[in-house]
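Figure 3 (text version): structure tokens given as input.
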């Protein structure tokens, strides 16, 4: 149960990292602020949003790293784990599927019914 909760938490952190990285502005965006883009009037101030986003991204990256290590540890504790080489060896032991027989060259004759002439059909 803890393993599944940790996987969900790990995926949510990954989505959060993606969102916060996409929200950040590149280094070239600082040039726009030099020409009076009014960044000091934002919610976080002139430098507040950049430091908030980068700090939050760093925290999420640390949490992602910790959950990755935790998932690796819990995966190692599982009893039914198999090595990749063991999986390949077990796949070789599976009997192959027999192919269907090839079609023969004998033509198939389908009887065709001809309409019988009745007294109504005769000219």
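Below: residues designed for each position.
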């Amino acid at each position: 149960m803890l393993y599944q909760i940790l996987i969900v938490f790990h995926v949510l952190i990954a989505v959060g990292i993606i969102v916060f990285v996409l929200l950040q502005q590149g280094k070239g965006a600082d040039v726009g602020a030099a020409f009076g883009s009014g960044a000091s009037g934002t919610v976080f101030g002139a430098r507040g949003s950049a430091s908030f986003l980068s700090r939050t991204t760093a925290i999420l990256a640390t949490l992602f790293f910790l959950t990755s290590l935790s998932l690796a540890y819990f995966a190692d504790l599982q009893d039914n784990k198999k090595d990749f080489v063991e999986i390949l060896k077990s796949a070789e032991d599976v009997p192959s599927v027999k192919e269907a027989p090839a079609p023969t060259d004998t033509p198939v004759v389908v009887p065709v019914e001809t309409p019988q002439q009745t007294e109504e059909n005769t000219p």
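The helical segments are 2-23, 30-34, 48-77, 84-92.
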